[in-house]
Amino acid sequence: MKPLLRKNLNLYRHGSPVLRYTDLYNRISRTADPAVSMVPILENWLDEGNEIKRPELQEIIRQLRKDRRYTHALQISQWMTDRVCFNLSPEDAASQLDLISKVYGLEEAEKYFSSIPENSRGYRVYSALLNCYAHTKCLEKAGALMEKMKVLRFIRTPQPYNLMLNLYSQMGKYEKLDSLMQEMKEKGIKCDFFTFNIRLNAYVASCDIEGLEGLLMKMKADPRISMDFHSYAAAANGYLKAGLIEKALTMLKMSEQLISSSVNSKRFAYESLLGLYAAAGKKAEVYRIWNLYKKNGVFSNVGYVCMISSLLKLDDMAGAERIWGEWDVGKLLFDIRIPNLMIKAYCSKGLWEKAEALINKIVESRMEPNGASWDHMATGYFENGQMTKAVEAIKKAISLSKPGKKPCLYRVEVCLKYLKGQGDMEAVEELLKMIKESPFYSTGAYDRLLSCANREDLTTSGSDQTGDDDRTVGGEPPTALEYTDKGSTRIMTD
């Protein structure tokens, strides 16, 4: 086959790999529907007399992975080896294993790993499987694979250790971290930036201020480590959790000095700082960061989520309404999280009429409220004595539920109590049927509600004993801190 003349593909521009939009990539990028296979596009490309070389396909796969188009990336990867018969390089095999895990699950990834000849697996393939185990929190399997990699002498860099450190940290096994880092030291494997930041975030999560401060000093003294925004932001979060506001503010000022000049880096940093300054109770700083965010020129729905969440945390309802209004007028992409913030806030303050007007506006604009929207409304209704409306809202919330975002049993039970008190047993049975048929409530949850509905003296004490899985409040998790692999933090509310 003649080499493909890739006039529009420049893999190295300004010193970094960049994908230029070739005709082939244009065809692939235009077909974003995961239900549409990429194979016919590739076959048609060859039928037209075009040729394809491995580097181009590899670069397209990398771009699709960045865009989270994992199904299409996997289709091209498998076609590359099955149809074009390129020899499977360790890098290709590792990428394909990871994609199989993302698309079809861990079990299929393990089958694929077993199908690769032992002498062809190598460090990259083992590392890819270790990453899959870490991502799915399979601690036992990850530990066993790590030990095998040690026996095979595949561990020469901190990356496998970082995966295990992060896994232990996510599972709350903080006591394992120091021994693992000591093992790295004994084997002559130096900690890198990610190692330190994983440990830093673990100190934050466990509220170990002494450990946090000791590690910060160690990082500053290490000539190989360049402190950046993420490290200081993580430290600030740790101080905030411990109630050390002044130390947190010092860290935040230091983090601001290290914000990267790129537009996207600034956007992420400002979104993080909004929540952190709000947690410190500094309204003026929140508005200052928001003005910097706007000057940056790139707005995102996440930014509005962070800003409105921050103002609500500071009990600045007027400010939250103003920012909400700005988004509502200028939005390019509807994001239900943003009106949900206002609906929840209105309901929590007894302003259910405002919340109702807002949800009606969403419906009239042909957008769709989600389960959380109606769950907030149900809360607002029954806390203000509007029980008929509360029942209808809770039914809508159940029908639109998603995993981890369902109405809690307490509110369902309140509605059951009301309906039984009204003598409307048909409505009681209808609500119980909805719970039974929902894939997001356990059998035990249904049985508890059924037992409760059958009691002569129906009270709300029954759901006090439900497990965490069935006690989700508001159909969504409370405000939480989101951590990146570099240790950055930003307030996120769904």
UniProtKB/TrEMBL annotation:
Biased composition (Basic and acidic residues): 483-494
Keywords from the named record: Repeat
Cellular component, GO, one term: mitochondrion
UniProt-annotated stretches for the region Disordered: 457-494
InterPro entries: PPR_rpt, TPR-like_helical_dom_sf
Signal peptide: none
Presence of the UniProt keyword Repeat in the record: yes
Protein's recorded name: Pentacotripeptide-repeat region of PRORP domain-containing protein
Source species of the chain: Jatropha curcas
